[in-house]
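Quick check before the chapter quiz. The format below is the same one you will see on the exam, so make sure you can read both the input and the output lines.
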Amino acid sequence: MSDKLTQASEWLRSEDNLSPLALVVRRQFPGATVFPIESLPERGEDIHGLLIDPDKVARIEIHRECPEMDVAGSIEMIDLQTYRTTVRSKNTRRMLDAAVDFLGGPQ
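Here is the expected output.
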C-alpha cells in the first residue's frame, strides 16, 4: 500500500498532472509530501481528503462545473484525530493509517 501512496503523492506533485486537484495541491502545499486518502464524488463537486503532514488532513472541494478555473471550492484543514472520526470506509482507514505510518505520525 505504501507504493500506491507514494506513486499517488508523486503524481499529485508532477507538473505533467494538470488535474484541478493537482493544481490546487501544488499551489497551496508547495513542496509538501501530500497523500490522497479519499475521494468522494458529490453532485456538483468532488471532495478529496489529503494527509498534509503527520497530524493534519486537508479536505478539498473541486467544483466539476468549472474545472477550467482550477480553483478549489474550499479547503478545510482538519486535525488528524477529528478526521479519523469522520472516516466510514475500511479502505480509507487503511490508506490513512498507511500514510500516517509512512510520515511517522501518531496512530
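If your answer matched, good. The mean pLDDT is 88.
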